[in-house]
Design brief:
Elements lengths: L10 E5 L5 H12 L9 E6 L20 E6 L5 H18 L3 E4 L22
Antiparallel strand pairs: 1-3, 1-4, 2-3
Length: 125
């Protein structure tokens, strides 16, 4: 926050996982904070106040009811590098079987455009 102003995240990732926020953080931390990579990254893991166990199953817009959101802040990082970080995260989550959808200005650089409207990414049942 600068001078009391709220800043929008560079990317918001909606994740549906039946695990605690602590477990989620432990799971994604090594993916987001790769030791060989020097990217300025701040992550807020938020329990989604709109979480709904039934509405999360609705395709394609149910993602807004997923259990968690990750707000990713990457100031002074070029869009290509931001997309690389989010791509790594999405692929990991999808491979792990977790539903995840990313919303960002660089969605066109993400696999499956961030997962929105893609039937090939995991979805809650």
């Amino acid at each position: 926050m600068v001078d009391g102003e709220l800043r929008a995240p560079d990317c918001k990732v909606y994740i549906d996982a039946d695990i605690s926020s602590t477990e989620l953080i432990s799971l994604i931390e090594p993916i987001l904070f790769d030791e060989g990579e020097k990217v300025s990254l701040e992550v807020d893991v938020v329990e989604n106040e709109d979480y709904d166990s039934k509405r999360r199953r609705l395709f394609p817009d149910g993602f807004i009811y997923f259990r968690y959101t990750l707000d990713l802040y990457m100031p002074d990082v070029p869009p290509t590098r931001k997309a690389e970080v989010v791509t790594r995260l999405l692929k990991f989550l999808w491979d792990y079987g977790y539903p995840a959808v990313a919303a960002s200005p660089f969605e066109d650089r993400l696999p499956k455009r961030g997962g929105y409207r893609s039937r090939s990414v995991p979805w809650p049942r």
